[in-house]
Design a protein that fits this description.
The structure holds two protein chains of two kinds. Chain A is an alpha/beta fold. Chain A has helices at residues 44-51, 74-81, 99-109, 114-127, 143-155, 173-190, 201-207, 225-230, 235-245, 251-256, 282-290, 320-332, and strands at residues 2-11, 21-29, 33-37, 59-64, 67-68, 84-88, 161-165, 193-198, 210-215, 218-224, 265-274, 293-304, 307-318, 336-339. Chain A folds into two domains: 2-244, 3-Layer(aba) Sandwich (Rossmann fold); 251-341, ACT domain (Alpha-Beta Plaits). Chain A has twelve helices and 14 strands. In chain A, strand 12 (293-304) and strand 13 form a beta hairpin. By secondary structure, chain B is mainly alpha-helical. The termini of chain B are far apart. Chain B is built from nine helices and no strands. In chain B, helix 6 runs antiparallel to helix 7 and helix 8 (175-184) packs antiparallel against helix 9 (189-217). Classes of the chains: A alpha/beta, B mainly alpha. The interface between A and B is medium-sized, with 31 and 23 residues.
Chain lengths: 342, 220
């Protein structure tokens, strides 16, 4: 069953403004980490706010755990929100409350008695590794520690769903990796469904199972993270993917490559390896069977959503038809071969 | 070199207490009415917790009207109201009414500013957790704004000390009035100097107390 199902969402902040959401439909399955990636202004922030109705869509339906949240009255909506924890980019902690008091806040709101709150805080702080900071104030914490408080607070009322609004965007790369590892770990331990929005494809690569790419209020591409990374269909998606995979070859390198001999051609291509053939010796097989020379200009192997994935840039020399045939053979193995301008 | 006669010393002490009572009582009333007023202005403002122009605009207008009327005029203009509330229109008790009114309007705006300083993100987080509007006001807005609210009270107290000097016009007494009547009208510069020094010390004390409280309460 889908944990979150959004259908035909539309939202416009002013009658003459461009739509923030333009007919968005998404479905997040229970237990998965679903990422929404997009540039600022793409509508992803509005979208995640429509899940707990911090923002009300102009049209469409929002179902959370089978419940039509748009139909709820005020009291029922507040109750439903307790089932959805939210983590924010700027942490949004109470400056005048200690770590323990911040974490206990959602329980205080829900009317949990003091003893119950203390017991739950004592469970939550070790979960995020902050036992030692229980009486510290937010101003005394680092960014990563503040976000750990934010996460513990979001989990206080035992939600089934965690909404992460650019949760790592204010953090340095190392702390980002730590927080993402924590989210992944908590997802597995607490059986959470996570919906996160980010403008960094690296975040998607390291924690998400599925991803939707947003642009101008629409979802332009959606799928398993591995598929989107290895076969991006839209130009925007390709640019996002390129940020992480970095396939571009420096101009100086291209200039230093030897030119093609008479009667031969030089082709500069990028090859993406994924799936079962990613471990085959393609370069040497192609050189032997098609009589072409292949020079590896750059290359790296990575793992996306736990699957091996390789990317390399090749300078290939040979008769034009032989080159074409070797590329066709690579494609038949399931590799993606694209020309690089150079 | 004691240039002040014992009688004058008694008069100074008495006037000082009148000032303390006028300032203290009107500040107390102003906080009691100004905070709810500021909260109402804040939550009904555009983009607030319950935006409502029909409440916000007239209320804002009244507050501004009270703030823009010069205190000496306000004091005379509301004499009928003062008589209704205090039973008389002259004396220290009567002076408290216009002082409290002016301070309420002043504080309402200062409080409103302090409330506006509260991080909107914290309020959004509370909404996301399922907090009701009342809970947001009581558990987020006011506690988070507390250092700013205290700072606003300090500013209001200091202004009230100044306003209270005009209370002599309605027989309110106080240090300012003493300075005018003896120091100025009877050419007694030593009285004027003492009054000014006492007022400076009083204001200084209030400001230091306020600053200390703000420092203690904020956790930045």
């Amino acid at each position: 069953m889908a944990a979150i199902r959004l259908q035909g969402l539309r939202k416009r902040f002013a009658p003459d403004a461009l739509p923030a959401l333009d007919d968005v439909s998404l479905s997040v399955e229970a237990g998965e980490v679903f990422g929404i990636v997009g540039r600022s202004g793409a509508g992803k922030s509005t979208l995640i706010r429509c899940v707990n109705l911090l923002e009300r869509p102009d049209a469409g339906t929002v179902q959370v755990l089978g419940q039509d949240v748009l139909a709820l009255d005020d009291a029922a909506l507040r109750q439903a929100r307790r089932g959805m924890g939210m983590v924010f980019q700027h942490f949004n902690l109470h400056a005048r409350r200690t770590v323990a008091e911040n974490v206990a806040f959602p329980l205080e709101i829900a009317g949990v008695p003091r003893a119950g709150r203390a017991a739950r805080v004592a469970e939550l702080l070790p979960l995020v590794g902050l036992e030692a900071k229980r009486d510290a104030y937010p101003a005394q914490l680092s960014g990563g520690q503040k976000q750990r408080v934010g996460i513990a607070r979001a989990l206080a009322s035992k939600p089934r769903i965690l909404l992460c609004d650019e949760a790592t965007s204010a953090l340095d790369p190392e702390t980002t990796a730590e927080i993402l590892a924590l989210i992944r770990d908590l997802r597995a331990r607490l059986d959470l469904t996570v919906l996160l929005i980010t403008h960094e494809m690296g975040v998607v690569k390291s924690v998400c199972d599925r991803v939707a790419v947003m642009e101008a209020g629409r979802v332009i591409e959606e799928g398993r993270v591995f598929d989107v990374f290895t076969r991006p269909a839209q130009p925007t998606t390709r640019r996002f993917v390129a940020e992480v995979i970095g396939h571009s070859v420096p101009e100086g390198t291209v200039a230093r490559l030897p030119a093609a001999r008479d009667g031969e051609a030089r082709r500069l291509v990028q090859v993406l390896f994924a799936g079962p053939n990613s471990t085959r010796a393609v370069v040497s097989e192609a050189s032997r069977d098609f009589g072409v020379d292949m020079n590896i200009v750059s290359g790296r192997v990575d793992e996306i959503a736990g699957e091996p994935f390789g990317v390399m840039a090749l300078a290939a020399y040979g008769a034009p038809d032989r080159l074409e045939a070797s590329f066709a053979w690579m494609r038949s193995l399931g590799l993606t071969v694209t020309e690089i301008e150079g | 070199m004691n240039v002040l006669t014992p009688a004058m010393q008694d008069l100074l002490l008495e006037s000082f207490w009148e000032t303390v009572i006028m300032v203290g009582a009107s500040a107390g009333i102003a906080v009691a009415f100004g905070l709810p007023l500021a909260l109402l202005l804040h939550v009904t403002a555009p983009g607030g917790l319950s935006p409502n122009g029909w409440i916000n605009r007239p209320l804002g207008l009244i507050v501004n009207a009270a703030r823009s009327t010069p205190f000496i005029i306000l004091m005379v203009a509301i004499v009928p109201f003062t008589r209704l509330v205090a039973g008389t229109s002259i004396g220290t008790g009567a002076a408290i009414v216009p002082l409290a009114l002016a301070a309420t309007a002043f504080l309402a705006r200062l409080f409103e500013n302090a409330l506006r300083e509260v991080d909107r993100g914290v309020i959004e987080a509370a909404r996301a957790m399922g907090a009701s509007r009342l809970q947001i006001v009581a558990k987020v807005l006011v506690p988070e704004a507390l250092p700013g609210l205290i700072a606003a009270v300090t500013v209001a107290l200091v202004s009230l000390v100044g306003f209270s000097a005009m209370a002599g016009a309605v027989g309110g007494g106080g240090l300012g009035d003493l300075g005018i009547r003896f120091g100025y009208q009877r050419f007694m510069p030593e009285v004027m100097a003492t009054v000014v020094i006492l007022l400076i010390l009083f204001v200084q004390g209030l400001q230091s107390l306020g600053d200390w409280l703000v420092r203690r309460l904020s956790r930045k």
